[in-house]
Design brief:
The complex is a heterodimer of chains A (165) and B (575). Chain A contains four helices and nine strands. With 165 residues, chain A is of the alpha+beta class. Chain B starts with a strand and ends with a strand. The chains are: A alpha+beta (165), B alpha/beta (575).
């Protein structure tokens, strides 16, 4: 099963490499990973999407928690949460038909076209990873994808619950 | 008033003094020369110069295992630091607190592939508890204080501190400020067992008919043998120790059924396999204990006490997990047992012990020594036990001799038995014995080793001469890599690929060349007298080279893929 883990850790040199090293050392899976400082710049927040059964997840959470730099870890998928990922995708828009169609698909998915070239459109789309997958699949049926980049997912718990020091 | 300023090198020494460090084990080199200069100009801390940095880590490790004090290692950048890697991994696997100070090229050169530059923090990342890159001179004292705190609390382990040369030079100075009472928001090990889990554990114990206590290195690290003995006597239960946990209860205690696991006793493995409740204290269900995890003790309810949550339910699912320091949790268990008026179920105990004593009577740990034939390695250990009255510190290398020592030298106290259990590092024995001897110069310290292992750090005979460390080295010389050979006999149809030690040196001459005494033992009738002679020499290192039967195997031995009690008990005989 897919899980989204939010990790709050000291914003120290090498902290990220400890996390990544741990996942590779213990053969845990990383589907996506994002990292940035938080509103408190002594802290970093990492979001990792991973896949594993309950036993593997238990080990991942415990092993990450054991790292000295890690302050808190939470499995967002255990409860209600909001999850978002950003996609930038460059597609071929060679003629009127494909330009219209790409624009129409983007609108349906609530994406926005952020750049236009002679023969390309660049679209920005935010949403759950599922929605991004569906968007890419639809585009693929309609036109040629030239380049795409995804941020990896980030997430936050719904309601009062907060991951803070 | 002007504040006094110090160089980084001076700060390191001042910080170590503040932390009451007595010894540094190390080897100098370019990037740490300022630090060596600072050490030279003070008397509080003694530096022990080894002959190879790996030995510095093992010597610090042996010192720590014998005393409980954090060992300190100092190495230069590049190869000096990388030579420490095996020793750091060894300490990590056995949860030994250690602080390794590694030199580094100046910060301006880091990343440039400078002379003797390696990213030692990167190299050691998977085998340390934590590491620090020092980048600010003023931080040095607090970084070192934190390193000690992290190394020696929670589940102990090695910590690496990288010190770039430009932070150490006398031209750069800063104020010395140290906070020895360390607090970290990201690191707060849970020490006390959760009361609900304690109640659950005691309830499980109360319902047990066939309880066994399985204790490990956690007991040794926390020096809680007395509490463990009280607990075992309260429960009237059998107890088995892991290889790392030997000495956690006296090897002569009537409730002790021996070591468990791959080369554990028949009765220990049988007791585990048939138990209905296992009280696991400071252990990690290592694969050398469990054999096939699918077949591990199928009828047992497992109570697992450990300071490290990752150890719990990692390989074997714990029914009652208790996270906490084992000494605190054992006291909590005793208190709860008393509060609930625990009375052992005498009837169930009678049946249980009757069964255990039947297993004991089968005497499946054993060997046959025939007069006039080659010396059996087991006999050598038994004779050493007799001569040293079971009171010696025994540092072991890795292989058959290690298992023979574990089986035939019943340790009375924790910290007497010093071996590389998790990593299985050959070359560990001699430097570890030296560390123990440094701490306890008046005690017998044995390095039990083999003709393979001893050659992995034999250069330390020179260090022994320099610092007068008269350990007794006993080499069970079978002209083979014995454990490798045993596996080749059992698994590879006797094809001894690269397990025969051709062109062995004359160990007696080697010892003498380094200024020590060498004694060769070839026949059984001279074994006891010559060993007694070796142990009677107090002021010189004695290297005893005992020629033993190269065909001897270690038994019992787990049958691969079997349960914990599926064992070979002698050549070709299954239990």
């Amino acid at each position: 099963m897919r899980h989204i883990l939010s990790i709050l850790l000291e914003n120290e040199a090498g902290a990220l490499s400890r996390i990544v090293g741990l996942f590779s050392q213990r053969a845990f899976n990383i589907e996506s990973l994002t990292v940035a400082p938080t509103d408190d710049n002594t802290l970093s927040r990492i979001t990792i999407a991973t896949i594993g059964n309950d036993k593997v997840l238990e080990q991942i959470v415990k092993q990450v928690n054991k790292l000295v730099d890690v302050i808190k870890i939470s499995d967002l998928t255990e409860r209600k949460h909001v999850e978002r990922e950003l996609l930038l995708v460059k597609v071929a828009a060679m003629n009127d038909r494909s330009r219209t169609e790409v624009k129409r698909i983007s609108d349906i998915f609530r994406g926005s076209i952020v750049d236009i070239g002679k023969q390309i459109y660049t679209i920005e789309l935010t949403g759950s990873s599922d929605k991004l997958n569906a968007f890419i699949e639809t585009l693929n049926n309609e036109t040629e994808i030239i380049e795409s980049v995804r941020s990896g997912c980030v997430g936050i718990a719904r309601g009062e619950k907060a991951l803070r020091v | 008033m002007t504040t006094e300023l110090f160089s980084g090198a001076e700060m390191v020494v001042k910080a170590l003094s503040a932390l009451k460090v007595k010894y540094i084990f190390g080897y100098p080199g370019g990037s740490v020369l300022d630090l060596y200069d600072a050490i030279f100009q003070q008397d509080e801390i003694e530096h022990i110069l080894v002959r190879h940095e790996q030995a510095a880590t093992h010597m610090a490790d042996g010192y720590t295992r014998a005393t409980g004090e954090v060992g300190v290692v100092l190495a230069t950048s590049g190869p000096g630091a990388t030579n420490c890697v095996t020793g750091i991994a060894t300490a990590y696997m056995d949860s030994i607190p250690m602080v390794v100070l590694a030199g580094q090229v100046p910060t301006t050169l880091i990343g440039n592939d400078a002379f003797q530059e390696t990213d030692i923090v990167g190299c050691t990342r998977p085998i340390i508890k934590h590491s620090f890159n020092c980048r600010d001179l003023a931080d040095i004292p607090n970084v070192i204080a934190k390193a000690f705190y992290i190394a020696n609390t929670g589940r102990p382990g090695p910590v690496v501190v990288e010190l770039p040369k430009d932070l150490l030079i006398p031209q750069n100075k800063a104020e010395f400020r140290i906070e020895t009472d360390v607090k970290m928001r990201s690191y707060n090990p849970n020490v006390k067992g959760h009361p609900k889990q304690i109640r659950k554990a005691v309830k499980t114990i109360q319902g047990a008919k066939k309880l066994v206590v399985y204790s490990g290195g956690g007991i040794v690290l926390s020096d809680t043998a007395e509490l463990l003995t009280t607990l075992v006597e309260t429960l009237k239960a059998p107890i088995t120790n892991t290889l790392m946990g030997l000495g956690g209860i006296s090897g002569k205690h009537e409730n002790f059924v021996g070591m468990l696991g791959m080369h554990g006793s028949f009765e220990a493995n049988k007791t585990m396999a048939n138990a209905d409740v296992i009280l696991a204290l400071g252990v990690r269900f290592d694969d050398r204990v469990t054999n096939n995890v699918e077949k591990f003790c199928p009828n047992a309810t497992i109570i697992h006490v450990d300071i490290d949550p990752t150890s719990i339910s990692k390989t074997i699912n714990a029914h009652v997990p208790v996270v906490g320091l084992v000494e605190i949790v054992m006291q909590q268990l005793l208190d709860e047992l008393a509060a609930t008026n625990f009375i052992p179920d005498e009837e169930a105990l009678k049946d249980w012990w009757q069964q255990i004593n039947l297993w004991r009577d089968m005497r499946h740990v054993g060997y046959k020594q025939v007069e006039g034939e080659k010396i059996k390695p087991q006999r050598v250990v038994e004779v050493m036990y007799k001569i040293t009255k079971g009171e010696a510190y025994v540092a072991s290398d890795v292989g058959q001799h290690q298992m023979f020592a574990a089986q035939y030298y019943p340790f009375a106290k924790p910290r007497q038995w010093i071996n590389s259990g998790g990593a299985g590092t050959m070359g560990f024995g001699l430097p570890a014995a030296m560390g123990a001897k440094l701490a306890f110069p008046d005690k017998h310290v044995i390095c039990i080793t083999g003709d393979g292992s001893i050659q992995m750090n034999i250069q330390e005979l020179s260090t022994c001469m320099q610092y007068n460390l008269p350990v007794v080295i006993v080499t069970l010389n079978n002209r083979s890599l014995g454990m490798v050979r045993q596996w080749q006999d059992m698994v590879y149809d006797g094809r001894h690929a690269s397990s025969y030690m051709e062109s062995l040196p004359d160990f007696i001459k080697v010892a003498e060349a380094y200024g020590h005494i060498g004694i060769k033992i070839d026949t059984l009738d001279e074994l006891e007298t010559k060993l007694a002679q070796a142990f009677s020499i107090k002021d010189k290192l004695v290297f005893v080279d005992v020629l033993v039967d190269e065909k001897e195997h270690v038994y019992p031995m787990h049958i691969k893929h079997g349960g914990i009690d599926d064992m070979w008990v002698s050549k070709g005989v299954k239990a």
